[in-house]
Amino acid sequence: MENLNLIYPEIFLSLLTIGLLMLGVFKKNSFNLIIRFSSIGLLLLIPVVYINNDISNELFSQNYLVDSFSIFMKILILGSSAIALFFTNEYIKNSSINQFEYPILVLTSILGMFVMVSSNNLMGLYLGIELQSLSLYVLASLNRDSIKSTEAGVKYFVLGALSSGLLLYGCSLIYGFTGSTNYYIIAKSFDANNLALLFGLVFILVGLAFKISAVPFHMWTPDVYEGSPTSVTAFFALAPKVAGMAAIIRILYVPFGNIVIEWQTILIFISVASMILGAVAAIGQSNIKRLMAYSGISHMGYALAGLVTGTKDGVASTILYVLIYVVMSIGSFVCILVMKRKNIYLENIRDLSGLSKNHPLVALSFVVILFSLAGIPPLAGFFAKFYIFMAVVKVEFYTLAVIGLVTSVISAFYYLRIIKIIYFDPSQEKFDPISSNGIKFSLAFSTLIILFYFLNPSIFTFFTNIATAAIK
């Protein structure tokens, strides 16, 4: 088959998954070996994916795209997933969920994400979402000894099945009235005066909004974040958000790129609702994982605000926002994993009391990450929001920009509350010493990027602009 080299990453990932599954079946106590191979395999895949850079190719009768946009998103998925496996390794062992199926489920979900990112067909998109989702359902409930984990998996599965059904119904409406599931053909055949087609678009957006936990389809997020093992929650906050946002960008700007006004209103509502709920609902949270869930909802609202513009500048700002959000999330969850006393992992925000006295470097890193999440200059989080608001203001959506600024101020309250607890509350018993090199490296990596991003932000914008160029 011509251009087979373009899907080498997917082929390699499939073979790696099957090979490691066979290894796990026939070799006892193979978790350490499999997770090591998985991490190395993901890192080795990055140059394999990058080789296809500056290429725009359509495979399988224009139903699968390998372009600069999909390449950038795949590299971000691979990098964030490899780092997640790296810094959660110790937690997985300590929590007795070190079964060989764990990294294999991560690999299968990544394969689904690859299909989502490159798909130029509604059926391909659906298959990618299902492959990703089924793996994530199992990961959420992997800790069978925990009622919370089991409950999280069931909630995620039931609500995820509902969202998939709505997405599939939307796809069927689009197919019924355009006669195709290919994005290019849909774009040519789409009639904005056909109410059934608009309903199909709404159902598709509902299904995709669920995947990035945007309001009002966020209801699963706090419970699943809290109930799932922290290592799984960290993964949920990284790669699936990237894949979900990539799928939304592709579907809005390719098949529905000619009817921007029709989907702008829907997207404005989802964006504003996500920013407001994420900012307000997080204020009363005492569990740090639930707080990060609402924080993630809020940040997805800001990312969607860039897409509302309907311009390439808006898309570039959204891609950059997702990139910086991933870096900030890595740092956040590393700090959460540091919260361990006598080999028991803690999740209450109050347990961070006096962290600055017992672990000054961790406290400093956490403060840098929290300030960045709040959008305080000159940290990376500030620039992420700045580019979003600039894109929004450029198309004269002033109300959306003002709402974004106000919700940023509100959300700063709960980030500052954590900083106050870290630095000014009475000191508690020390956390256990950090023995994991993965945690040390990941914390240093995310903190340094956030802290020194302002020195040369053009490095990131250069790559996001290249990625955006592929969106027609």
Structure write-up:
The protein is mostly helical and 472 residues long. 56% of the residues are buried. It is built from 20 helices and 4 strands. Helix 14 runs antiparallel to helix 16. The protein folds into 2 domains: 1-257, no CATH class; 259-472, no CATH class. A hairpin with a 2-residue loop joins strand 3 (340-341) and strand 4 (344-345).
Strand order of the largest sheet: 1-2
Low-confidence stretches: none
Which band does the percent of strand residues land in?
under 5%
Distance between the termini: 26 Å
H-E order: HHEEHHHHHHHHHHHHEEHHHHHH
DSSP helix fraction: over 70%
Largest sheet at a glance?
Answer: 2 strands, antiparallel
Label the structural class. mainly alpha
General shape: globular
User: Overall pLDDT, averaged?
Assistant: 91
Strand tally is 4
Annotation field: number of helices: 20
Query: How many structural domains does the protein architecture include?
Result: 2
What Rg, in angstroms, do the CA atoms define?
21 Å
Brief overview:
The protein is an all-alpha fold and 472 residues long. Helices cover 74% and strands 2% of the residues.
Write the layout of secondary structure elements.
Layout: H1 8-26, H2 31-50, E1 57-59, E2 64-66, H3 68-94, H4 101-118, H5 122-140, H6 147-178, H7 183-189, H8 195-211, H9 221-227, H10 230-236, H11 239-253, H12 260-281, H13 288-308, H14 312-338, E3 340-341, E4 344-345, H15 355-358, H16 360-374, H17 380-394, H18 398-424, H19 437-452, H20 458-469
Antiparallel strand pairs: 1-2, 3-4
Helix pairs in contact: 1-2, 1-4, 2-3, 2-4, 3-4, 3-10, 3-11, 3-14, 3-19, 3-20, 4-5, 4-11, 5-6, 6-8, 6-9, 8-11, 8-12, 9-10, 9-13, 11-14, 12-13, 12-18, 13-14, 13-17, 14-16, 14-17, 14-19, 14-20, 16-18, 16-19, 17-18
